[in-house]
Amino acid sequence: MFSPRLALASLSGEADAEWARQGAEWAGAAFLGGICLDGPTRAAAREMVADRDRTEFLPDDPVAFVDDELAALGGVDVRPGINVRSTTAEPVREVAEVAAEHDAIVEINAHCRQAELCAAGAGETLLRNPGRLEPLIQAVGAAGADVSVKVRAELTGVDLVDVAERIEIVGADALHVDAMDSEAVIQDLADATDLFLIANNGVRGRASVHEYLGYGADAVSVGRPSDNPEVLSRVADAVAEWAASREAEAPR
Hints:
This protein has one domain (6-249): Aldolase class I (TIM Barrel). The chain contains 11 helices and 8 strands. The chain has helices at 17-23, 39-52, 62-71, 89-101, 115-120, 125-128, 130-143, 160-169, 185-192, 206-214, 229-249; strands at residues 6-8, 29-36, 79-85, 105-109, 147-152, 174-178, 196-200, 219-222. It has an 8-stranded parallel beta barrel, surrounded by 9 helices. Helix 3 runs parallel beside helix 4 and helix 4 (89-101) runs parallel beside helix 7 (130-143). The model has no long low-confidence stretch (mean pLDDT 97).
């Protein structure tokens, strides 16, 4: 899906094309966004900005914004992704058509726990009702783009392995997992599915990289420190070290 197997994880209102360009020296993929696409999620984002002074992307035309941002990464050696929030499939399909033209991954946000977005029916609420998540995944697939789903572990009442198995059946290609304090969940997901697993949370250097990859992750991602060259360099070195060790162990 991308190489090197280090991704930059989306940061609301911050992860744009310039951010991705700055991290491209170390990363194989960069997930821009998140972008709210439909009426309920955009209203929630406006409320978050007004009431809590959060930074959010709220362009007048989200689809055109995505097209411009992805185009700005033309010629940059990083595979772009776009993290999107929506309660309905049609705007996801529209963005996925644009993403397919740029060989970009569409990442469905089933991760955000902000109260406003959850009240709108987006974010982590989709994990509690995967039947509402599935049409969003199918909309991306119908448009010809690769689809990732960003999720979080440790959500009460949610069987993440069951969710992963369901979304794989309807066409998801990757699962981007915020492991919280349950790193071993990566092993459960790797055993249960063939999804490309991107492990996130606390990825800062050799110990965390090797732990996640040892559990079966295909890649790792860096969130908050994704604008820190020192952290990115350290993580990239650890990913390369792991890859070299696996190659050395492979039968010849």
